[in-house]
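Our preliminary data section would be incomplete without showing what the modeling component actually yields. Below, a chain of 175 amino acids is followed by its predicted structure, encoded as C-alpha cells that our downstream tools consume directly.
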Amino acid sequence: MRSRNLRRLGLTSILGLALTVLGLAPTAHAAEPAPAALTFAVDSPTTTPGGTVQLSMTLTNNKTYDLWFMYQTIDPTWLTTQRPDLKYSFTGCSLATANGSVPCSGTGPADLGGNYGATVPPGQSRTVTLTLQIAPDSGCNGNIGFYSYYYAEFSDRTSASGGPVYTPETRVLCA
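Predicted structure:
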C-alpha cells in the first residue's frame, strides 16, 4: 500500500517539475488596478435645508492607452428614496482643468460621462464637481447618498465597466 502511494507522489512531483521547467505551471500575479477607477468626495458631510454640497467625481485612467469615451449614471441610494421629504437637485457642474474650472453640461442621472472632457491620457485623472442643492423646504435629519455605474472605452479598443461606486452620504441637519 505504501509503495503505491509513494509512486503516485513521485509521479505527481515529476509532472509538477516538468510543468514548471516548461513554463506551463500557473504563476502568482499581483492584482492589477482596474482599467478605470471612479472615486467620489464631498466638501461637507452635513448641510441644512437651502444649503449646497459640492460632490466631486474623479475618473482615473489606469491603462497604458488613452481613455476615449465614458458613460456614467448617478442615482439616489435606496435609503435616500425612502425619504420623499428630502428635496434636492443637481444645479451645477464644472470640470477641473489646468487653467481652472470650466462649466460642463450634464447634471442628470445618465449624462455625466461627457463631462470628463476629451481623451484622458494614461495615468491621468479628470475631476468633475456637481453642485447638490438642498431645497429650502426640504425635510431634515436624513441622509442623501448616490451610487454610480460607469462604462469606459480605450484607444486599444477595449472597454471596462464598474460599479456600483457609492458617494459619501450628506446629512441634512435641521437649521
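The first strand starts at residue 36 and ends at 42. The CA atoms of residues 3 and 9 lie 10 Å apart. Preliminary results of this kind motivate Aim 1 of the renewal.
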